[in-house]
Amino acid sequence: MFEKIHNDIVSRDSRSRSGFGGVGGFARESVLQTFIVFLLVLAGLGYAATLFAQMPQAAQTTIAAARVWPAADYTRVTLESPQPLRYQTLSLKNPERLVLDLENVALTPALAGLNEKIGANDPYVKSVRVGQFKPNVVRLVFDLKSEVKPQVFALAPVAGYAHRLALDIYPLEPPDPLMALVDKSEKPAESAPAPAAIPPVAIAPAPPNSPAAPVETRPPATPQARAPATPDRSARADTRRPARMITIAIDAGHGGEDPGARGSSGTWEKNVTLAISRKLKERIDQEPNMRALMIRDGDYFMALGARVVKARRANADLFVSVHADAFTSPEARGSSVFALSERGATSAAANFLARKENEADLIGGVNIDVPDPFLKQTLLDLSQTATINDSLKLAKAVLGEVGTINKLHKNNVEQAGFAVLKSPDIPSILVETAFITNPDEERRLNDEAYQAKMAEAIFAGIKRYFAATPPLAREVVVRNNQ
Ligand SMILES: [Zn+2]
Fold it and tell me: Among 250, 415, 416, 464, which is most exposed with the fewest C-beta within 10 angstroms?
C-alpha cells in the first residue's frame, strides 16, 4: 500500500513536471494536495498500527537483554526492551509449566539463548523453551521443578535500564528463614541447638515477595527439601540449650538488578557488600552463643521491606545492613554508621544518603500491585523509639570499632529515614564501610584481608553492644510493648 501511494505520487509529480508552463502553479498545488493526502494516510496507518498492535503487520520489539537471577527466595527473569512489552501468562499442570507469550517480539538471540542462562541449580526453573508460537507471538515455556506462585509485572525505565518485564517465580510457601539456622545450629549437635524464643511464624504477614532460606549460590538438591511449610517443632522444643542463641541478621546491600554504587575501576557495591557480609557471618558463627542469618546470600534483588520481614521472621536480635558509600568527587572517603530517624535526618548529607539507598526498590524493581505488609507494620509500630535508642547504642559501638581500621567519614552516628532499618523491634544499623568512589578505598574494599578486618570490626562493635545491653533485657522490653 505504501509503495502504491508512493508510486502514485511519483508518477503525478513527474506528470506535473512534464506539464510545465502556465499550469505549473496548479500542478504544484495538486502535488501538495496529494502529499497532504499521503500524510493523512500515513497518520491513519500509524493510528491503525496502535489500535491493532497484535496484528502480524505491526512493528516488532526486540529484547535487548534477558537476565536470570536464581535464588532460594525466588527466581527472577528480566526481559529488557526499548518499548514496553505486551504479554500474557498461563500456568499449566502435569508437569508444572509457566507460559509467557510476548506479542510482536522478534525472536532474537537474546531470547533464543535464554535457556543457556538457566543454571542446573536454579531452585525453581528446570529449563525454558522459546519458539515462534504464532506469526506475532513468541512463546516462552518455563519447565518448573515444583508448583510455583509467579508474578509478572512491567517496570518503567529507570537508572540506565530501558523497559523491563519482570517474571518473579516464588515458591508456594516461602521457605522459613529459621530452617537454615536450625540446620546449621544442629550440625555440632550438642553445642548449638535451636532457639527457644521463636515467635509465631506470622509476626508479619508473609508476602509473596518475602523471606526464604539464604542459599542462592549453593542450593540443595530439591526445593522441597529447602522449603518446608512449617518449622521443625521438635527442634524448637529442645531444652538442652545452655543459653539463648543470639541471632544477627546480616543484610548485604543491593543485589541482582540493583548493583548499587560503582567504583572507577568497575567494582559494584553489591559484590563487596556480599563479600564483607559473608566474612561477618563466618566470624559471628564462630561464637558459641551467636549465629548469623544472611538476608541475601547471592546475587539477586531483594526488596527493602522483604529484608525487614525476613529478619523479623527469624526473630533476629540485631540487623546490620552492609553498604559502600559513593560521591561525585573521588576525594570523599571514610566509614560511617547510621541508625533510623523517626523525624527527619540529622544532616542534609544523611538525608541524601537515605534517599539514595531507598531507591534500591525502584532500581531493583518491586511489584507495586502486591500490597506491602511492611508499610502496615511500620504504621502500627509502638516500640520504635526504644528500638532506635538501642540502634544508636549499637551504631556507636560499631563506629568506634570501625574507626580503629579506617578513617571515619563522620565522627558521630547519623540518623535518617532508611527503609531497611524500619524493623520496629530489632535494633538496626546501616554501615557504609568505605567510599567505593575513592580509588584507594575501592581497592581496599576488594581486598580480602581488608574485608575480613572490616567484618572483624563490625563484629567487635556488636560484642561491645551486647556487653552493655544484654539481649535478654531487650526481649523483656519487646514483650512489654506487645
Ligand atoms: Zn548502598
Answer: 464
